[in-house]
């Protein structure tokens, strides 16, 4: 992809770079490769300041984001926010665990002080009048927002090629997609531009980007994290969750953003255990002993890349050697999941996106002499990209009189069947596993002309969204044929997110012992400038 | 094959208030037919005795206490609007000449 083909590529980073003199880009690489957990410890011990940590990440962004294009907007107040944390720490104010740790935020989340476009031209430059609850919680935890990350328009896509602001590149290979929709958050973390990030996952938009960038990403139980202020794609499927380079870091962020929110009617009112404690329990050594790991028969085989399958089976053997009991489970209706999803999602999206009507926010395309209806039609024609139009039209079709029962109604029944499959599998297993995605990162343009091929990339991740169960993606190796990251997906019953963190941390520890360090240490160096 | 015609796509686009171009209608007609044929697979297993699920995690109640609180000030609510008069959103004429 040439710079000319990606309008806006790198503009956020370049404007930041231009605003700084005597940039120290390239130094402080140790801080940008430090986990959020370790940064928190260094900050608490006073060995490093939040300003230093934040500046190291901003410098890294300035150095590499012209190529990666993970960010749409850089927070101009980041250093001031960090300085305030440092001042409070110096004054002896009691601070939350992650105070002073930077974080990147997917552009689907509303932020009072930064544009929130959801990757769409129809919201270009729009600054929301309120913070998403998860953003408010990051601020209350005194974390430092670095900026907003790129995404497929309104989270519709698996590659960021549908962003109105040009695609994000995969840090492992700049000619390949970083996954989507949350390719910006995953690439930011994988390129050491942020230690942690927030994403949103409607059909895999956290887990699939994590898989193809060698990162960790979690879709919590539906209702476990507030959706208030997350620009809605499909309300019965959307969940906000953490993106990171380690399972513990994801857990720490999950603990900050999770829990009941009265502003979200679908938010679960129960108390939740500490995900960080669950992850630390997984690091203790024998956490996999006796755990029944269900290998979902339907989530491998045809359509799965050979290297994905080989890395997957090596990982299963490693888990078995650590005492896990590997059982094959069958979910016969998972093969209908993609079809059900591409009816339910467009139906809900066509309704949710009706609010972009040129009246209250965003773009308005004037039509001389036209009615408000003409203006709405022209605005939505000019403001929405091809994939968004495709899904709105598909959703309108699925919901129209005469077709509703045959399509949307049938899809909702499949949802019941998938929930029953999960219930049956969880009778036999404590956690379920599969590859996070059927292939490693594909090349730009490879699936762009064929929407159905793009949709099939979500085959592994969609069932968890339809059933509301939590899912985690973590790196499990590099495919032998292309040297690109492969992700392992773990799924647990609804409300059992902690189980994922314990198992995930245990598996991560086994894999890192095998590799002699984290997978991200094998990532190629990016050009810095 | 599903019978999606350019006229049907134009009708859907008008319902969805998107002023698609002729070229877009033509392209979407083909794409939509292929997608609908693929997703129609759900009908194979959606038998009458299977109940529909609209929501993944059933929650009882869900009403919060009705307490006065701080709401969005008008100025802030209007801040992102394409056009306003200081207290209200300003829109193009809603009624055509014939009304």
Structure description:
- The complex is a heterodimer of chains A (529) and B (99).
- Chain A has 529 residues and is α/β, with parallel strands linked by helices.
- Chain A has a domain at 104-337 and 413-522: Amidase signature (AS) enzymes (Alpha-Beta Complex), CATH 3.90.1300.
- Chain A has helices spanning 11-19, 29-32, 36-44, 50-68, 78-90, 133-140, 183-190, 207-213, 247-257, 275-282, 306-321, 337-352, 372-383, 386-398, 405-428, 451-456, 462-467, 497-515, and strands at 71-74, 102-106, 144-149, 196-201, 216-219, 239-244, 292-296, 325-329, 431-435, 471-478, 485-491.
- An 11-stranded mixed beta sheet of chain A has the order 1-3-2-4-6-5-10-11-9-7-8, sandwiched between helices.
- In chain A, α12 (337-352) packs across α15 (405-428).
- The longest helix of chain A has 24 residues, at 405-428.
- The model of chain A is unreliable at 1-10 and 16-27 (pLDDT under 50).
- Chain B has 99 residues and is mainly alpha-helical.
- Chain B has a domain at 6-44.
- In chain B, 33% of the residues lie in helices and 0% in strands.
- The longest helix of chain B has 18 residues, at 22-39.
- The mean pLDDT of chain B is 89.
- Classes of the chains: A alpha/beta (529), B mainly alpha (99).
- At the A-B interface, α12, α13, α14, α15 and α16 of A face α1 and α2 of B.
């Amino acid at each position: 992809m040439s710079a000319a083909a990606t309008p806006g590529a790198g503009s956020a980073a370049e404007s930041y770079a231009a605003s700084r003199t005597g940039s120290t880009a390239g130094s402080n690489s140790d801080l940008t490769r430090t986990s959020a957990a370790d940064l928190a410890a260094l900050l608490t011990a006073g060995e490093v300041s939040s300003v230093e940590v934040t500046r190291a990440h901003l410098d890294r962004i300035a150095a590499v984001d012209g190529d990666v294009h993970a960010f749409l907007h850089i927070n101009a107040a980041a250093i001031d926010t960090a300085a305030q944390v440092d001042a409070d720490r110096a004054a002896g104010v009691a601070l939350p665990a992650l105070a002073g740790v930077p974080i990147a935020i997917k552009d689907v989340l509303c932020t009072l002080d930064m544009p929130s476009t959801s990757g769409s031209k129809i919201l270009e430059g729009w600054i929301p009048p309120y913070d998403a609850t998860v953003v408010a919680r990051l601020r209350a935890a005194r974390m430092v927002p670095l900026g907003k990350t790129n995404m497929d328009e309104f989270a519709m896509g698996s590659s960021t090629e549908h962003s109105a602001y040009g695609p994000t590149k995969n840090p492992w290979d700049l000619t390949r997609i970083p996954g989507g929709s949350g390719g910006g958050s995953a690439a930011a973390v994988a390129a050491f531009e942020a230690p942690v990030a927030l994403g949103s996952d409607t059909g895999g938009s956290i887990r699939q980007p994590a898989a193809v960038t060698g990162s960790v990403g979690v879709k919590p139980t539906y209702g476990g994290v507030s959706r208030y202020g997350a620009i809605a794609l499909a309300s019965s499927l959307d969940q906000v969750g953490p993106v990171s380079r380690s399972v513990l870091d994801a857990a720490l962020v999950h603990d900050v953003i999770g829990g009941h929110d009265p502003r979200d009617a679908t938010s679960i009112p129960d108390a939740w255990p500490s995900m960080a404690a669950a992850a630390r329990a997984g690091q203790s050594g024998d956490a996999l002993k006796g755990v029944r790991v269900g290998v979902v028969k339907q989530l491998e085989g045809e359509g799965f890349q050979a290297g994905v399958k080989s890395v997957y089976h090596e990982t299963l053997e490693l888990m078995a050697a650590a005492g896990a009991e590997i059982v094959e489970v069958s979910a016969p209706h998972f093969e209908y999941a993609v079809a059900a999803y591409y009816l339910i999602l467009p139906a809900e999206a066509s309704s949710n996106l009706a609010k972009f009507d040129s009246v209250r926010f965003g773009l308005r395309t004037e039509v001389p002499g036209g009615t408000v209806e003409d203006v709405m039609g022209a605005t939505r024609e000019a403001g929405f990209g091809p994939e968004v139009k495709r899904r709105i039209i598909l959703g309108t079709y699925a919901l129209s009189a005469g077709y509703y029962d045959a399509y949307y109604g049938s899809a909702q029944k499949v949802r019941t069947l998938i929930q029953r499959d999960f219930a049956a599998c969880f009778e036999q297993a404590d956690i379920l596993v599969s590859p996070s995605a059927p292939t490693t990162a594909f090349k730009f343009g490879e699936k762009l002309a064929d929407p159905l091929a793009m949709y099939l990339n979500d085959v592994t991740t969609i069932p968890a969204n339809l059933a509301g169960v939590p899912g985690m993606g973590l790196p499990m190796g590099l495919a032998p044929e292309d040297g690109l990251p492969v992700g392992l997906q773990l799924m647990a019953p609804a409300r059992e997110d902690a189980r994922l963190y314990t198992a995930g941390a245990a598996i991560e520890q086994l894999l890192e012992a095998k590799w002699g360090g984290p997978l991200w240490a094998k990532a190629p160096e990016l050009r810095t400038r | 094959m599903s019978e999606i015609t350019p006229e049907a796509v134009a009708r859907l686009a008008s319902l969805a208030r998107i002023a698609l171009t002729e070229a877009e209608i033509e392209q979407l007609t083909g794409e939509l037919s292929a997608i609908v044929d693929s997703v129609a697979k759900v009908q194979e297993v959606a038998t009458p005795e299977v109940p529909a699920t609209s929501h993944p995690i059933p929650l009882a109640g869900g009403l919060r206490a009705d307490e006065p609180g701080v709401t969005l000030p008008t100025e802030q609510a209007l801040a992102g609007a394409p056009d306003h008069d200081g207290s209200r959103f300003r829109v193009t004429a809603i009624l055509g000449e014939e009304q």
